[in-house]
Design goal:
Elements (H helix, E strand, L loop, with lengths): L4 E3 L39 H7 L3 E12 L13 E13 L3 E4 L8 E6 L5 E10 L4 E6 L20 E6 L7 E12 L9 E4 L11 E3 L5 E9 L6 E5 L4 H10 L5 E2 L2 E4 L3 H6 L8 E6 L4 H5 L6 E5 L2 E2 L3 H9 L6 E8 L2 E8 L1 E2 L24 E5 L2 H6 L9 E6 L14 E5 L2 E2 L3 H9 L6 E8 L4 E8 L5
Antiparallel strand pairs: 1-12, 2-3, 2-5, 3-4, 4-7, 5-6, 6-7, 8-9, 8-11, 9-10, 10-13, 11-12, 12-13, 14-21, 15-16, 16-17, 17-18, 17-19, 19-20, 22-23, 23-24, 24-25, 24-26, 26-27
Amino acid sequence: MSRAVTVLAFGLVAFLGAAFGFVAAGGGRVASPPASMWFGGSPPTFAEVVARVNPAVVHVDVIDETRRDPHEGIEDAPALDLPNRGEGSGFIVDPEGYILTNHHLVPGPGRIRVRLADKRELKASLVGSDASTDLALLKVEARGLPTVPLGDSDRLRVGDWVCAIGNPLEFDHTVTVGVVSSKGRKIFNASFDSYIQTDAAINFGNSGGPLVNVLGEAVGINAAVSSEAQGIGFAVPINLARSVLGELRRHGRVQRGYLGVELHELDPDLARMIGLGEAKGALVLDVVKGEPGETAGLRRWDVITSVSSENIDDGDDLVRTISSVRPGTEVQLGVVRDGRPLALAARLGERGEEQPEPDPVQPVRRREKGDALGLSVANLGARSRAEMAVPSDRVGAEVRDVLGADPGTDAIERGDLIIEVNRKATPDAAEYRRIIDSLRPGESAWLLIYRPRPPGTFLTRVEVDRRR
């Protein structure tokens, strides 16, 4: 992840989730504010909006079962054994006591208490939680509670006024105002993320609080803030919440369909390389053995263009479409293989929990210029193959060093295996060099790479440079 982004829990110890994504909700309505909120050409006032929404915003306090010692590492300090504690925000979406907040506030077993706007403190139970969307649903035993109405985040425009309400740094019911700076931001999960970026001031403790439009509707759930800059906060679009919320209320978790393929985004250059007329669809880079995609007959370099007659624009679209289908359902896949259309049937499995991101890799040493792609490669020895548990069907030239600074090489690490170059197999270093030597200066080299740790396949483009 190139930008440092921090989730917004605050306390003695903030609970940080392993995966983040979309948050969704559904609930009651409150009275709408006056139709016009503009005064003499000045920006809109949120005073009446806040008066209506504030009663439904709550303070969430969590004490986890794990323990910590704040004096650890301090010489001569007495040892302490204290519970982990986190704090954040939430908002009521159902008058029967259902509260929407972030998963990273309540990632595990613990005691949860909610403080309402009228200062009542109630014990809350965790109804359900979903790491992939960073969504959690809480329940308190109360009725007739005020609620925040849900808006339409798809109708948001860059430049629209919004306000964030929450409990940053234990300052309850703090209100900040700004605009929508951008939409569709990806910061944690490339497949699920579509964050709303806003310059409304967001701080630790705002997690789970609503991002509200000028009509007093929740259009997002505040979730993260950039730690490298000011005025860059992120909220999860509310439109992605409704089906998720329903799943959490019924099952306590979200059941998502799973195909079992690794994907890469298409661009015009890559589309030409694989013989595709336009850069549209989801390109299959790898098929997980024993999963529905392999059973259905999918192969590397297939392009999935539709699912049960629903057009697929890109890989993210495919993941969201498949994930929205209940496991066990049979879907019809429209596929283009080597320029020819075909149809495949796949019975979906169930998508598992998101895995944590790997630890950052140390930068590689740069001493020489490397080959025409800025790489140094060699054959993978049997001992290294065994130590890294490389599957027998993953054969390629091992990257020993990344010596150039060309666009595309920044995705490559020492130990990666180059399996193909422009769809031509490179089972060893000699074949890799032969293919690279056949390319002209300025020509694109699309490298299909297998990374042993953590295992995965990806595609990167490097431009051939003969000046090395």
